[in-house]
Amino acid sequence: MKFRLTKTTATSNKKQGSHRIRTPIHKRKFYVRESPIGPYRSKFEQEIAENLESRNVTFGYETEKINYVLECRYTPDFILPNGVIIEAKGRMSARDARKHRAIKNQHPELDIRFVFMNINTRVEGSRFTHQQWCERYKFEYSERIIPKEWLNVTKKKH
After folding, report:
1. Which of 11, 63, 124, 141 could form a disulfide with 93, with the two C-beta atoms 3.0–4.6 Å apart?
2. What is the pLDDT of residue 31?
3. Are 133 and 126 in contact (CB under 8 A)?
4. Can you give the pLDDT at residue 23?
5. 12 is a domain residue
6. Cβ neighbours for 33, distance < 8 A, ≥ 6 positions apart
7. pLDDT beneath 50: ranges in the chain
């Protein structure tokens, strides 16, 4: 089965019958394979697909999404003798919020708590306030000071 290559410089995704035409980002030209499988992102990918087809190899093209984790480091603001980690925030950026959710998911043994200058300030790029964000993602929080109770918490056992 042969497929026709076409060049397109369209500015939006359009459908022609059951064939999808891929649109460029920043006016790049895409080489499009007109088939129900979908377009290829480059002429080289098209060549590989055609080679696989000529050898009667069944394949999928961009059919799966694979999650991965980037290795990063987190330096806590304060660590109390009982192991409680205190993060002091004047404002929380979207990047900070994403980072702390990832840390909590990957290190559930850590007891990270937030002290905000103002718990009613919105998390950057979010509809949630600091308080709402902490409640949603199950972080303990305080405004302006570290509560006395946090100082008396016993260490979590792993």
Report:
1. 124
2. 46
3. yes
4. 42
5. yes
6. 3, 5, 39, 40, 46, 49
7. 1-33, 35-37
